[in-house]
Each structure stands twice: as structure tokens, then as C-alpha cells.
Amino acid sequence: MNLQTMAHKLGMEDAAAAFREEWDAIQQTLPAGGPPFLRPEQVARDCETALLPADMAQAVAAAAQRVAANDALSALAWYCHCRLFGEEPAHPDLKSWPLPTRALDRDAGLFYVLVLLSGIPNMQRVHRQRGIPADVIRETVLNLKRCMEREDYFLRTGHWGLSPRMFGWLMNHWRGVLYQLGRLQFKPGPFRGKLRVFRNRGTGAVLALAQDGLTFRANGEMHEGSDAARAPDGWTSTLEVTGTEIAGFPIDPRGCVVRRQMRLPARDWQPALAPEDPILEIHIPTGPPPMAHDLCGESLRRAMAFFPKYFPDRPFKAFVCSSWILDPQLEALLKPESNLVRFQKEVYLYPLLGAGATMNSAVFGLGTKDIRTAPRRTSMQRALAEHIEKGGRLRSGGCFLFPEDFDWGTQVYRSRGVFSTSANAR
Ligand SMILES: CC(C)(COP(=O)(O)OP(=O)(O)OC[C@H]1O[C@@H](n2cnc3c(N)ncnc32)[C@H](O)[C@@H]1OP(=O)(O)O)[C@@H](O)C(=O)NCCC(=O)NCCS
After folding, report:
1. Structure confidence by residue, pLDDT tens digits, 27-51
2. Model's pTM, two decimal places?
């Protein structure tokens, strides 16, 4: 079946371009009996391997039957499978892959569940090659169920399924690059922060300096918008690293950049982290359970043992996270016993641009626009709604934590850092 026919039959003409690449070549390989991964016995086995409970497996099996009975849906399912799990897997932007809503109505969110299930052999191959322990596979794979019953497709429609965005996210689990270790998830990647970090050779103290040419507000938050540099309170960072000296604007581990240039003798400070360095991203799946302080510490401890053992080819310099939960303002807005606040105190925070819609959705519910009618059931909702009503803005934040500094519960960068012993800097 050609691409236009498929798109027309499924009422997806507008989005068909997302499937153009390799469409014809892939269709030539479609087996006569349709995609084998849609056969009932195969679907049942895959649901079992993916740890889907019986009621979910039944819904997935019913959706598989509908897809198998429809030649356009079968052609599309085969295309998605081959593109992602074929001999030369591609990395398309899955957010642009539409849901076949017209053809599958309430089952549309199960379409990409079927595609994911079809990739189980590929995922198992990676796990086998790396020798990943069964308990980690279990924790990691269970994210499919969790996403199907908690994330945006379910919240929007009330039916189990995956949005294209969550499908894309779960491909990380399925490609064997992301692992859940207790409460947190980890994924190797390059450091994308706009800062450089140095470590004092004598004291071991860590200091982050903002990259050159970034614009901040007087209070050290990042400035947004193209005219930021011209804003009345805008100022621009500089960073100069020579063989003898490092001169730049320091980032307080509480997450703001200080408008006071520091000059460090290069012989005393060695580079510790720079853009593109290998890091381990931290991801925090939606609760419950909460991100309890001890559980987070335990997850990080597990990651420090897991990655060197199973991914010796992916050494990492630091743990890094970017999220609305790292908005440095939260420390002042939430209760001190809040898990988010306690997490923030254990890491070195740095400013990022606004969190806006992400935070609104995460805190007040998907698509919340009007703060006046947003729910105020939890202390966070009440505190953030009040903050916004008073003209405050929510932001994003980033953080890093070096494994060699890991001492969970001691707030290492606040208790032992340059900002508590400023004598280290001249
Ligand atoms: C991250 C998460 C697990 C933290 O929850 P937590 O451990 O309960 O966090 P805290 O202890 O700081 O919560 C303090 C208060 O805010 C509430 N709260 C926490 N997260 C909330 C959220 N997303 N929306 C509304 N209220 C929230 C808690 O219920 C608690 O309320 P209470 O004082 O009335 O009992 C939770 O926010 C969540 O599931 N978020 C979605 C996933 C996410 O955003 N991950 C980060 C992206 S990388």
C-alpha cells in the first residue's frame, strides 16, 4: 500500500509526511499474513514479558485484532516496527508521529503500545549483551504500564495508551539506554548545561562558572527573550580560561549566578565538567510514591555501582538533571520537609529558562491555563498558585552532583563548597 492510500484510509493526510522516509521500501517487506507481532499468541507473550496486567493485556490484544483486520493500520504498524527495530534502526522525532485516532478511536493510544511490544526482542538482545540483572529489567519495563495508566494520553482521554511523546520517551527504555534503579531513572548522555565546573586541587571544593555571553537578571536568574541584554536589570556573563587564570561569574549552588567576577589561578583549579562531557541524566518518574529523600539517595548509590559494571564503555563525570522540580525558588515556597526541597539541597543547582507550561501541567493538571481556577489541594499547588497570582513566575532549573562528592544528607555543596569557604577563591 502506498503512503497516500494509507494516510487517506486512516484520515491522516496532514501528518503522512512523518512516515515518508523508507515507506515504499518497508512496505515491500510486509509479510503476506500481516505483521507477525500482531498475532494473538505473540501479543499475549509480549504483554507478559512487558509485565502488563491481565486487563491491560486484554485491551492490547483487542487493539491488535483491530489493527490486524485493517490493511492500512497493518501497513503503518509494520512501517513503525521496521523503522525503529529493523536492521538499521532510525531515530525519527516520534512526537511528530500522529495517533491513528480516526481509525481506532479510544484504542488509538494502544497503537504505539503494539509497536513498542514488537521491539521486545531488540530490547532483550541489549539486556542479554550487557548482562542486565532481571530486577533492573523488571523495574525498567514496568514503566510501560505506569505510563499507560498515568501519563498524558490517559489523563486526556481516560483510556489506557501512550501519546506519541510518551512513546518516544519509552523508546529510551526499549533501546536499553535508560534504566530505572529504585525511585529514579538514569540515562547516559552529553552535558548540555551552559556552564563550566572546576575543582580545587587542594581542597576538592567545586565551583561552577556561567558560560560566556549569557544574560541574567540582577537576582542571578536567567533572562528570557531576545531583548534580554537590553532589559534594565539585564547583565551578561563573561568567561575567560587561559593557561594561568580562570575568570568568570560564579554560580551559587542554590541556583543563581552571582554578579561578582571571580579570578581563579589555573594551577589551583582543574576542569571538572564542561559542555558535551559524558554525564548520567537523572529522571524522576511520576509518583506516587513520593521521591522520598532516602529512596533518592539509594537510587544514586545504585547508579554508581550499576553503570560502571554494565556500561564500562560509558563512563560519566556527574549526575545531571534539568526539570521544573529544580526551580531554585521552590526552597522558599515549599515546606522545608518537602522532598523536592531536600533533593535540591543535596545537589549543585544552576539556573535555566522558564518552565512555564511543563510546570503548570505537572502541578495543576494537563493543559491548565487559568491559575485562578487551578486546583489547590496540595501545599505545592497552594504555594505556587499564590506565587503566580502575586506576579511571580515559575522557572526551570538544572543540577549536577559528582559521584566523588556523594554524601547524601550532608548538603555537600552548601556545607563544604566555595560558597561556605570563600577563601578558596581570589
Ligand atoms: C516529582 C514528584 C514525585 C515529587 O512529589 P513529592 O515527593 O510528593 O514532593 P514533595 O515532598 O516536595 O511535595 C510537597 C507537597 O507538594 C505536593 N506535590 C508534589 N508534587 C506535586 C505535583 N506534581 N502536583 C501537585 N502537588 C504536588 C505533595 O503532595 C506535598 O503536598 P502536601 O504538603 O499537601 O502533602 C511529583 O511532583 C511527581 O510525581 N511529578 C511528576 C513527575 C515529574 O514532574 N518529574 C520531574 C521531571 S524530570
Report:
1. 999 999 999 999 999 999 999 999 9
2. 0.94
253 Cα–ligand 1 center, Å:
22
Task: Single out the residue of 134, 85, 87, 88 nearest to residue 112, CA to CA.
Answer: 85
Amino acid letter, 307: F
Atom number of ligand 1 nearest to Cα 337: 11
* Burial (0-12, 13-18, 19+ Cβ within 10 Å), 105: exposed
User: What region does 207 belong to: left with phi over 0, alpha with psi -120 to 50, or beta?
Assistant: beta
365 Cβ closer than 6 Å to some ligand 1 atom: no
Judge if the beta carbon of residue 381 lies within 6 A of ligand 1: yes
Answer yes or no: is the C-beta of 283 below 6 A from any ligand 1 atom: yes
CA of 330 to the centre of ligand 1 (A): 11
- Tens of pLDDT, residue by residue over 230-258, are 667 788 999 999 999 999 999 999 999 99
- Cite the beta strand spans of 293-373 per DSSP E: 318-323, 348-354
Phi, psi of 291 (to 5 degrees): -90, 70
Q: Which of 246, 252, 255 is nearest to 198 (CA)?
A: 246
